[in-house]
Design goal:
three-stranded antiparallel beta sheet, about 325 residues, cytoplasm, 9 strands, 12 helices, PhoH, P-loop_NTPase, nucleotide-binding, about 15% strand, elongated, ATP binding, Ribosomal Protein S8, Chain: A, domain 1, six-stranded parallel beta sheet, Rossmann fold, 2 domains, alpha/beta
């Protein structure tokens, strides 16, 4: 099928932003959508299978509508991924959903599950986010924590994660307690720096507004007026998960994230995350959001890798 379109009124700046540097946006669209795109000035021609050609043309028109300024690469890639999955592109590039008060003013849920996840976090005291890598489980949890701290809804953010290596034995790590657990919490630090800025995060640590709490040292504590995040929860045992969830105090909120396809526990040890999802399914005040490869917001290839591994896992079973 061949589709043609003339972009009027002619705006060379918009056309340049639409096509990207060296027509990079057009080449990416051809690769991902399986079409051929050619243009001469404001005249565009899209050739390919009917559905793909229609999606490509709809994306071109949506991008042109918001091409008054250069289109950020991340925004373009997300729009391209949505188009590949059959989601209609948006002329303003934005989705409706809860907006969070962080350094990134544009931070909102990109997919239906991400928006559901944000709503669950805001409306429930304990929220589980379960799904593959790249779906925003950890980043959005940290964003909600920063938002709550900025609004003074909580007094501190507490970050925790089981100290389990991903298939490697790193041996004993040097330094004090904080330095020993830092490598395991690096993804959480990265999110904090992105959302608050390096200097502000440093000051928050000095004031005790952000705390690192290794899972092994949580027993006996009561966490009041805090936003607590447990990352990589698939690597907790049943006992550790029960211990962690019962630390919650007054005015606190808890988010537990994990990917049950990446369990690094010793063989024969059941994951506390899988057990908690089953046991707490009908408990009031607890919500669970399940992510899929369709929610991956990293490089487009990541979603296809996740899907390939899911298919391979299903075939083995």
């Amino acid at each position: 099928m061949i589709l043609r379109h003339e972009f009027l009124p002619v705006d060379n700046n918009r056309l340049s932003h639409l096509c990207g540097s060296m027509d990079g946006h057009l080449r990416d669209m051809e690769t991902v959508l399986g079409v051929s795109i050619s243009r001469r000035n404001e005249f565009f021609r899209v050739e390919g299978p009917k559905v793909s050609a229609e999606r490509a043309m709809a994306l071109l028109q949506a991008l042109y509508a918001r091409a008054d300024a250069p289109i950020p690469h991340e925004e373009f890639q997300l729009s391209l991924m949505d188009t590949e999955r059959g989601r209609p592109p948006k002329a303003d590039g934005r989705d409706t959903g809860p907006a969070l008060r962080t350094r990134r003013a544009d931070l909102i849920g990109r997919t239906d599950n991400q928006r559901l996840y944000l709503n669950n976090i805001q409306q429930h005291d304990i929220t589980f986010g379960i799904g593959p890598a790249g779906t925003g489980k950890t980043f959005l949890a940290v964003a909600c924590a920063v938002d709550a701290l900025e609004r003074s809804a909580v007094q501190r953010i507490i970050l925790s994660r089981p100290a389990v290596e991903a298939g490697e034995r790193l041996g004993f790590l040097p330094g004090d307690l904080s330095q020993k657990v830092d490598p395991y919490l690096r993804p959480l630090y990265d999110a904090l720096y992105d959302l608050m800025g390096f200097d502000k995060v440093g000051r928050a640590f000095e004031k005790g507004q952000i705390e690192i709490a290794p899972l092994a040292f949580m027993r006996g504590r009561t966490l009041n007026h805090a936003f607590v995040i447990l990352d990589e929860a698939q690597n907790t045992t049943r006992e550790q998960m029960k211990m962690f969830l019962t630390r919650l105090g007054f005015g606190s909120r808890c988010v537990v994230t994990g990917d049950v396809s990446q369990i690094d526990l010793p063989r024969g040890v059941d994951s506390g995350l899988i057990d908690a999802e089953r046991v707490l399914r009908r408990v009031r005040g607890v919500a669970t959001t399940r992510f899929t490869s369709a929610d991956v917001v990293r490089h487009p290839l990541v979603a296809r890798i996740v899907e390939a591994y899911d298919i391979a896992s299903s075939d083995r079973n």
